[in-house]
Specification:
single chain; 116 residues; mainly alpha; 54% helix; 3% strand; signal
Length: 116
């Protein structure tokens, strides 16, 4: 009987410890910040992921397979995705004219979205 009580108390203690760890502050440490500190912009891979998941749909950028189809057909490119993010106030207006950033977004579109 003592063995069952001891096992039950041990299980209860371990469960309590796991619950408190699961409820820890998720913002305490983020190894993958969504915004680049250097230029205060969303990382190109994160921007493409947002677009893929339909986050720019209200700006005219289709999500999911619609984005893949539109990109493959040449209807939407990096400039349109960046402009959609600017319209959604996710990026500063200067991002549309930053060719290096556009090239990075295009590279992400090629690897993440392209239908093969």
């Amino acid at each position: 009987m003592k063995r069952f009580i001891l096992a039950g108390l041990t299980t209860l203690t371990l469960c309590t410890a796991m619950v408190s760890t699961a409820n820890a502050d998720p913002t305490a440490y983020n190894p993958y910040p969504a915004v680049s500190i250097a230029n205060n912009r969303i990382a190109p891979s994160d921007l493409v992921t947002i677009a893929q998941r339909g986050g720019l749909k209200s700006q005219g950028i289709p999500g999911y397979l619609g984005l893949a189809s539109a990109y493959t057909l040449g209807q939407i490119g990096a400039k349109e995705v960046v402009q959609g993010a600017v319209n959604a106030q996710l990026l500063p207006v200067t991002a549309v004219s930053d060719q290096a950033y556009l090239n990075l977004v295009d590279a992400q579109l090629q690897t993440q979205v392209r239908v093969r």
